[in-house]
Amino acid sequence: MSANLSDQASNETRADRQLQSKMQAMGKRARKAARLMAAAQPGDKNAALFAIAENLLAHSDSILAANARDLRDGRDTLDRAMLERLELNEKRIEQMAEGLRQVAALHDPIGGITDLNYRPSGIQVGRMRVPLGVIGIIYESRPNVTADAAALCLKSGNAAILRGGSESVHSNQAIAACISRGLTDADLPADAVQVVDTTDRAAVGAMLRMPEYIDVLVPRGGKGLIEFVSEHAQMPVIKHLDGVCHVYIDDHADIDKAIAIAVNAKTQRYGTCNTMETLLVAESIAEKILGPLSQDLHQAGVELRGCERTRKLLGPSIKPATDTDWAAEYLAPILAIRIVDDLDQAIDHIDTWGSHHTDAIVTENVTNARTFIRAVDSSSVMVNASTRFADGFEYGLGAEIGISTDKLHARGPVGLEGLTSLKYVVFGDGHVR
User: In what order do the strands lie in the sheet with 216-220?
Assistant: First the structure.
């Protein structure tokens, strides 16, 4: 018995060492590739992006077949929201390809020098935009992140190590093959984007302990993953924990606009971090709008939970909302509704229960709109628009590496500029101090 346990422990230790060695080797290759990418010409990076896009479309059948395998494997273990995030179709593959093309069309920030000015000593001092180096990205479910992350990291002159969830392993590997072919077609290092091919969770732990190879980590997924990465990473992390997003219908709102925005913000897609989870309605307009709005939401299959005033208006069939609901990121067809006295109470609710992700006001009152966008401390604040627009593609970033609710370095959808840094450059002509 003791001999068997000893052998098992030895095998586990050997497997851990092998995985750590594998991850270290990936890190070394990524670091080497990052040096080459930092010096790559904009035309070469764009050529790679276009080539990857063409490969995605040309191999869509194999990608969909791999995705079907992931969906089949996950039917019994993944909830509805996770399956919705995991699923690919022809349209989503086309969107991935379009995202790559859009990134290619963006201005290349690398090497640009700004704020150049002469100092009294005669030297010129400016700041140059430079890559971060090697970006590690750990994500769950959504295979499109593989293409989006590759696009932004490549365009910004970085290398990337990508570790998708075990539930999307086949989809990610199929997309990774297209990325590798595209890089090779453009004569750029294939190691500039490496996708971890093991489903062993220890690979995540290994990445967190590689500060000598990975300059910054971006976790994308559930709160548990992001909290774990934030706690254990030995390098900086770009993240958001929750997407508790609000739409506030002001007493000066246009009824038709408000209904359209609220329905879209909740039902356009349930399993995303920019989906509305709580609807706030000014008391003076609640009776006019909640009746028709609740009908539209019921028809869409959305379960409503409300405060006492909401239930009094819509009837006791609406489940009572508790503090747990105000703090919930449902990622499902469930919506919490609260009737508030006025704009100030709406802002106070968002400040108390929100996650600083995305919040919107529907109003025709310019003063109220300005007050809302100044007072609400979120990474995206919207006026008369659905929260679903909080997205790198919709913002013209081409795609996004993630959404940050932190206040340092990057905030909101993280695109090209969020994956770069600045260094000072000094020009002289024999100047000495």
Answer: 193-195, 159-163, 134-139, 216-220
